Amino acid sequence: MTLGVVSFLTDVSSEAVTAILPLYVTAALGLSVVAYGVVDGLVQGAGALVRVAGGWASDRTDRPKWVAAVGYGLSALTRVGLLFAAGLPAIASLVVTDRVGKGVRTAPRDALIAASANPRNLGRSFGVHRALDTAGAALGPLLAFVVLWAIPDGYTTVFVISLGAAVLGVGALVFLVPDLRPRQAAWLRTHRSRESRGLPKCKGCTCEAPGGLQLTGRPFSWGFLRRGATVRILVVAGLLGLLTVGDGFVYLALQDRDGFATQWFPLLYVGTNAVYMLLAAPVGRFADRFGRARVLVWGHVLLAAAYACAAAPFAGATTTVVALVLLGAFYAATDGVLSALTSALVPADVRGTAIGTAQTVTAVARMAASAGFGVLWYAAGRVDALWIATAALVVAVPVCAFLLRKSAA
Amino acid sequence: MSALPTHRRRTAFAVLTVVVLAGTGWFVTTEVLRARAEQAAPSAVEQAEDVLAGPHVLFRGTAPGDLYGRVSAVALDDLSGPREVTPVVCDRVDSDGETTVCLHTRRGVVTTYEAEVLDAAWQTTASWPLPGIPSRTRLSPDGLVATTAFVSGHSYATTGFSTETTVHRADGSDVSGNLEDFTLVVDGEEIAPVDRNVWGVTFADERTFYATVQSQSLGRTWLVRGDLTDRTLVTLLDGVECPSLSPDGTRLAFKHDAREPGTATPHWTPAVLDLDTMAITVLDTEDRNVDDQITWLDDATLLYGLPRADEPGTTDVWALPADGATDPVVAIPQAWSPSVVRG
Question: Is A129 helix (H, G, I), strand (E, B) or coil?
C-alpha cells in the first residue's frame, strides 16, 4: 500500500513532465519536430534493458528497498536538472536518466510488493499497486495542463510541482516502507521448522552469535531461467508481447476514423488509464481465485477485441470509448498479473531478476511488435493490419493457454 | 535511517511533506500571481486602425501582456510600424486577405487543438480538430488549407514522434486525408518506409504542392512534389526541409541542415533552391538555427521567426535577402508566423 503511494507520487511527477515535454521542447525552447522525435525515441529505448539489472542488484544484495530507492532518487534528481536545462542535449540526457531510474526501480519494487503480500493475495496486492500507480499517471498530465492553463508559460511551475511529488515519493519510500529482506526471510522460514523440531537453527552455525544470522542459503544463480515453469512464462510473455502492437496505433486508427477521437486525441490514454486504474485491483483479486496464468492469457482476448473495435467500420464516440475500455481492462488483466504470476513461480532469492526479466521480455517483444506492425500498417493499410493482429491474437491465446496449463495451478 | 524507530520515521516524513507542500505551494502561488499580472498588463505596442485595408503582413503578436498571441497586422511598407490587432488568438496563421487559417490551442483541464477558417470579419466559417500541437499551415490561392500538427503520444504509447499533415478545403471538407498515405515515389520506385513523416506543405496550384517527407530509418529528408489528384509524392532532392515557394514560382526557400558531422541535433540554415537549375544557395549570413517555414516577403526577401534567447515566449520576424548578400535584420519585432497579404 505504501509502495502504491510511492508509485502514485512518482507517476504524478513523471507523467506531468512527459505530458508537457513536447510542448516545452517545441514551444518554449523553439526546437523542432525532429528534435522532439530524438527525445521521444530515447524515452522508448532507455527503460527496458536496465530492468533486469535492477532486479539482479536487488536479489544479489537482498536489499530491494534500497535498490528501488536509488532508482526513485535518480528520477527525482532529473527534476532538479529540468529546472536548469536549456538545450536539447541536456533535456535528452535527463529524459534518459529518468527512464534508467524507472528501469532500475521497477523490478525491486515488485519484489518488495511480493515479499510484503500474502502469497494467496499476490494478484490483488499488485492490482492495488497498479491502480495507485495509474492514478498518478492519469493525475500528472491533468495537473500539468491545469498549471499551463493558469500560467501559459508555466513550464517551470510544472517542473517544480513534479520535483515536489518526486521528493515526497522518495521520502515515503525511505521513511515509511519497511526494509524487507526477502532472501533472509525465506531462509528463516526454512530454518524455523528445524527450531520447532528442537534442532539447532542451522547446521554448523551459531545463530546466537552477535552479528546475527549469516546467510548460507543458495547464492544468486541464473539457474532459475532453465526451470520449465519460468521458461514457459517467458515464452508466453514474449509471444503475447509480439502481438501487442502499442496503444499508439489503436489511438491513431481511432483518430484516423473519426473526429471525436481526433478532438480528444491527447486524452485517449487518460481514458485507458482510468479504466486500468478502476479495474486493476478487482481483476487482480479475480486472478488470485481463478488462476493468474489464465487471466494473463485470456486478458489478451480483450486486446483482440480492442483491435477489432478500432478496425470495425463504425465510426463514432461509442466505438472509441469501447476500445479505450477494452484497452484499460487488458492492462488490468496483464501488467500486475504478470508480476504476480512470476513472483509466485520462482523462489524468493531470484524474484527480482525473474520479474525484471519477464518485464523486459514483454517490453522488448512489444517494441518489436510495434516496429513490425508499423510495416504492416503501411503495407496492408491500417484496417487490415488491425484485423491481422486481431486474428493472430485469437490464434495465439489458446496456444499460450495450453502452454501455461500446468503452471496455472 | 532504518535504525530510527517507526514513529520517528513517520514524523520525519510528515515534516518532509509539510516542507515540500509549503515550498511548492509558495512557488505556485507567486507564479500564478506573476502570470496574472503579466497577462493583465497592457502590451507595449503602438496600435493603428485600417492597416488591414491595405497591403499588409498578418502575424501572431508575441509582445508580452494582454495582447499576447493575438493576430495582428502591419502595413507592408512599414513593417516595424504600428500594428492593427485583431480579436483572434492563433499559434500559426496564414491569410490571403479574405480568408484566414488559424491553428490554435484550446487550453484547459483538457487541452485540445484546432484548425479554424476565418472570414474577413474574423468569424469562424469552418473548423476541424488537430491531433496535437500545431506546427505549420498554408492557404492556397484556390482555397486549399494545408495543416501540420505533431501527433505526440504518451510514454506508454510507443509510436514515437510523428506528424500529421492534411489538406482540407476552406469549407472544412477533407481533400487528402493524411498525406502519409499518398504513394511515395523515390527515383521512379514506390517505397513505403514505416517511419515516414510528411510536413511543411507549400502550394504551387490547386493540384500540385511541395512538401517534406522524412524517414529517420533511411536517414533521408526529401523534397517531394505532391499531386492531390493522383495521390502521389515524388521525391526531387534529399536534404530539403520545410519548403516555401516564391511568389514568382521559380524558387523554393527551405531549411538546410548544416550541422557538423556527428552532431545529434540539426542546425538549420535558410537556403534557396532554383527549380530550373536545381542549384542550391545556402544563406549562411544567418548563423542561428532557423526552425520555421520561411515566408517570402517579395521575390527578393525571406521572412522567418526566431525566438529571443533571453525572453521566453517572445519571438521576432527577421528578414534576409534571398541571395544572402547581407546579414539578416529584424523586420517585425515581437511577431511570429508572418503571412504576406499583397492585396
Answer: helix
Beta-carbon contacts of B289 under 8 Å, excluding residues fewer than 6 positions away, are B266, B267, B268
Q: What DSSP line would sit under A345-386, residue for residue?
A: HS-GGGHHHHHHHHHHHHHHHHHHHHHHHHHHHHHH-HHHHH
**B56, B332 Cβ separation under 8 angstroms:** no
In this prediction the ipTM stands at: 0.72
Please write the tens of the pLDDT for every residue from B119-171.
999 999 999 988 888 889 999 988 999 999 887 643 333 334 578 899 999 99
Grid cell of A22 as nine digits? 513536447
**Best CA proximity match to B332, nearest among B94, B4, B52, B72:** B72
What is the identity of the amino acid at B13? F
Best of A175, A180, A335 to substitute, by most chain B Cβ atoms within 10 angstroms, is: A175
Which cell is A23 given? 510542448
Specify which residues B186 forms β-bridges with.
B189
Confidence label for A127 from pLDDT (cuts 50, 70 and 90): very high
Q: What is the pLDDT of residue B152?
A: 60
* Cα A113–Cα A115–Cα A121 angle in degrees, nearest 5: 70
Under 8 Å between Cβ of B132 and B152: yes
Query: Which architecture characterizes domain A223-403 according to CATH?
Result: Up-down Bundle (1.20)
What angle in degrees, to the nearest 10, is found between the helix axes of A247-257 and A292-311? Answer: 30
Task: Report the residue of chain A nearest B11, measured CA to CA.
Answer: A175
- CB of B291 within 8 Å of any CB in chain A? yes
- For A168-189, the pLDDT digits (tens) are 999 999 888 888 877 777 777 6
pLDDT in tens, A335-346: 889 989 888 888
Beta-carbon separation of A41 and B160 below 8 A: yes
**Residue ranges per domain, chain A?**
2-182, 223-403
Calculated CA dihedral for residues A395, A397, A402, A403, nearest 10 degrees: 110
Same fold, A2-182 and A223-403: yes
Cα radius of gyration (chain B): 23
